[in-house]
Fold each of these.
Amino acid sequence: MLQTRFTKLVGVEHPIVQGGMQWVGRAELVAAVANAGALGFITALTQPTPEDLTKEIARCRDLTDKPFGVNLTILPAIKPPPYAEYRAAIIEAGIKVVETAGNKPQEHVDEFRKHGVKVVHKCTSVRHALSAERMGVDAISIDGFECAGHPGEDDTPGLILIPAAANKVKIPMIASGGFADARGLVAALALGAEGINMGTRFMATKESPIHQLIKEKIVANDERETELIFRTMRNTSRVARNEISTKVVAMEKEGAKFEDIRELVAGARGKMVYATGNSDEGIWSAGQVQGLIQDIPSCGELISRIVREAEAIIRSRLEGMIVQPSAQAAE
């Protein structure tokens, strides 16, 4: 068993997190992750109303008696969701750990902490991680450029970002973006993180509530099958490469504004991808880590395999590389 500051903080067995994913972070996936000894997050805004979130939390509790959390992402919107009501639903349900992401969540952090809720804040740069630490969050999830969704605008890959953050951040830190297997977990621990966050990898599991054809598409895709949309609007998002994302990138290069592509990138179309299995129906998030995903296991199989292989890498491969000077001389 691999124990870190993060596993102790949130009370789970393994230093593996299934972070928030719009339309994907539902009770059946989160409970499967929890039952396997890792930490799963229900995605609050996947639920249409705070009342629906309350029901989803109850549904998850019917499926597991292990710890799980809720993700609350705060992003700019023409008509913002009722964040305070979602926050209240999370607190009233007795959730003990929350993943926040997006714009400065100070009021949410203060309110969660007041009710004894641990806050893990997701960010994409060292400066934002330090800002969140000053804000009083309990842990950081640091997202490298490889990640699905919003990688920020600095384009710093995990191999630099994780140790750069570890040099300065004092609270526990989870590495996110580009993780799918035991090698990634061991690398993250070596770079100074206390565990890993996986999104795309958990999409391709048996319990993931998306269409089987999309899971198979993730397995078939290699590491080049993503596009960066909204670059020209400084709101970069890494999504799966398909007819629509390729068209959006081309339109942006020709000077298109958000109004010109709004119809193509509508969330309702992206939701339909997961429902119908048609990968060209809309925009959907996927990371470069697709190139490391070769199968569709259960969450239990995936997590136990990662932990077992990570222990083997540490015990056999890495320890085996250490040669005592006297032994070397004898050879």
Amino acid sequence: MLRIAVPNKGSLSGPASAMLHEAGYRQRKESKELVVIDPGNEVEFFYLRPKDIAIYVASGKLDIGITGRDLLLDSGANAEEILPLNFGRSTFRYATRPGTAKGPEDFGGMTIATSYEGIVAKHLADQGIDASVVHLDGAVETAIQLGVAQVIADVVETGTSLRNAGLEVIGEPILTSEAVVVRRQGATEDHPQVQQFLRRLQGVLVARSYVMMDYDCRAEHLEQAVALTPGLESPTVSPLHNEGWVAVRAMVPAKDAQRIMDDLYELGARAILTTAIHACRL
């Protein structure tokens, strides 16, 4: 059986399980379940702390896992990213009191508090900056107020909590993270079960990003219509019973669907509709 690690809690847990369910895999019904066997797909899922997943995968005890890019890099484990999953996005940045520093180049001799010391230490070393890093678990904003550090490095979304603590974001982002599939470095690339698993997840990603669009248009407007809906390879075009009309079907990006429908209507297309895609293979 393919052995896969899944986050057992936190912001990655729910979306990861939802994606696996969409991909046709059995998932746990209760949060207390630590192992779920899916015999139909020959997969065994292990629900682990997100921070530990890269370490388990690197050890070779588990074949692949889902975790955050930030957690993978911070672990220093001998594992690598093989597929981004487009959820759990976050930005990792430095912050400090106004006037303390303009960017990392001013951090010399300072102490930086963070929950991700591996990422920060590497970032500082890569830029040749001599600064100390202290590890804290959560609520790192208070480190400056309590005099533990002059700078913090943390996940930033809106920046509201930092501003409320009297801090400002400085410098360029250290890292942009999202959920990713990871495997042990040097693992066999053509493992058939791994490839099937990745194809299923890629199918979910495409299905979430596209809709199927159908419409009728005059034959003389077909080339213009097809330019608006080129599809992946090309659209499907079928003649209608009424002479001079054709039916067109194509996949279009979901984010552009309403605009494309407007443009098609202006072109003279009618009976324009979209349907969700639940699964696909490209």
Amino acid sequence: MALTARIRTRDGWAVSHAVVTVADMTGTQVLRAEADAEGVVRDDTALAPGAYTVIVTAVGYAPVASSALVTASGRAEVGAVTLARQGGSELPPPGPWTIDPVHSSVGAVAQHLGISSVRGRFTEFGGSIEIAPDDITKSRVEAVIRAESIDTGNGMRDTHLRSADFLDVAKYPELTYRSAGLTQAGPDRWTVHGELSMRGIARPVDLDLAYLGTGADPWGGTRAAFRATAELHRDDFAMNYNQVLQAGIAAIGTTLRIELEIQAVQGDVLPSL
């Protein structure tokens, strides 16, 4: 093959609709090839030895340009190319957006026995996002999570987490998060400043947010994607239960890492799928 390349997202997913364009030093296009279902580009068009510019594009992603040197063999091995979703400091169009829980996830990770991690998720939640039209730092997000929907894949552990030792779902059935604005933390990062209420206790919690981009969905709507993380201290919310093992190691870590993968639909209602 004269041209080979592998197109991936930052998460390692194949970009099956990517296009690779090769131009010579005069700017003339000499080759154009599309990726297959695995994000791999293969083309057997022989190229004359010399320097070329390789441009990789895909709808919804920022283009990537690089240089390639074709040897006497006529081959150009571009290798792995990583594409980033268009987004960054742009953020979605202003107005209301509704979180789609079917295509979103709210997860938490806790350290276990000091050597590994236990993962859980909440299966019932909803919320809304309001992108401010004039001053984007005044954008808001609100979310409500059903505490009883915690799922770690172990029924006994989940029952304990729902008890008064942890979430106390009988007394506090919901967790709520409300933001008070956001600030830009980098070229593609934002910090969402908000307040989390859990077990009847409200504490400030900032989210480290990445906007992954916006695109059309199969149901005629527009969707925006976000990824966010935060770190919580259990004792901030009076969840002090723990077991100390003989070696002096706590069975459960004192901090929780919150991991959010969010899809939001433009508008104030979700589509009927």
Amino acid sequence: MKTVADMPMETASEEEVIYQNPLLFLKIWEICSDSPYHGLSDKCRWHYHKEVEFLAIIEGRLGIQTKHEYTVIGPGDLIILGSSQLHRTAKLDPGLLRYIVFQVDLSQHFDQSTMPYLHCFSELTQPLWKLNYIFRDNESARREAYALIMDIFEESQSRMRGYELAISASIKRLMLLLMRSDTEGVLGGAEETELIRLRPALDYVDRHLSEKIAVEDMCGLLNLSYHYFIKYFKKVIGLSFVDYVNYKRVKKAERLLLTRDLSIVEVGFEVGIPNMAQFYKLFKRHNHCSPKEFKQRMRGEAGVGVSEAAPQA
């Protein structure tokens, strides 16, 4: 049994991903380490990036900690980390560790013919990390996804003529595999035409989280009546507009607590909730703890237990 208390935390940081090919919007490379086992120590920095990340293990075992869970994967296993998901990794055995890191902006791999499926990977209502149940429960899908990532890596290394076409095709096959293997409906949701209609409102929320956001402003922006907008938004997104804004504010607050040296009061102002009683209430509703407790837990000071999952077969 490991606990978060055994896993000290340094300040989280946003990792800038430098694309190996700017037109493919990706970075893929192999990590090979024969350093001694160190577990989740202070050498393992919390970080995040807007790109989705796949980790595929060739040899050895790797521990991955996120806000939600601590998982161990071994040879032939892989895991997906969603856009801007806080995480850190650690080498778990004294022997050799080899694995592939694949970071990609999936939104850049949709064209006019595939655009209707963009919303499936937008993470507006469901984070992509929830798709890891596929790799855990579906051996065939796991093997196929692993092979696709290895193909992408090999093509990026060889750079033979047409490698861009091969990589782009493999990325699309990987997304198709995830969609068709998603028996729990993580990638379900609204039609793209409905999201396009709401896109100005969603973009407005992202840009103005530190300010007051009124339903009436969205109605004017979309030229919809008040009652039609609130019903339409709930139908498309699956949350009321107010709940959606609060969700986005809490998510931003989580990141600020771990990546900025700000007081709780300052974080509340940054996310547009200057009333501390309201901020604490909303934060606790989403995380079942106060902002201070969240910060302590994620920095390994609260001793919250995290079970170590067995490697996937």
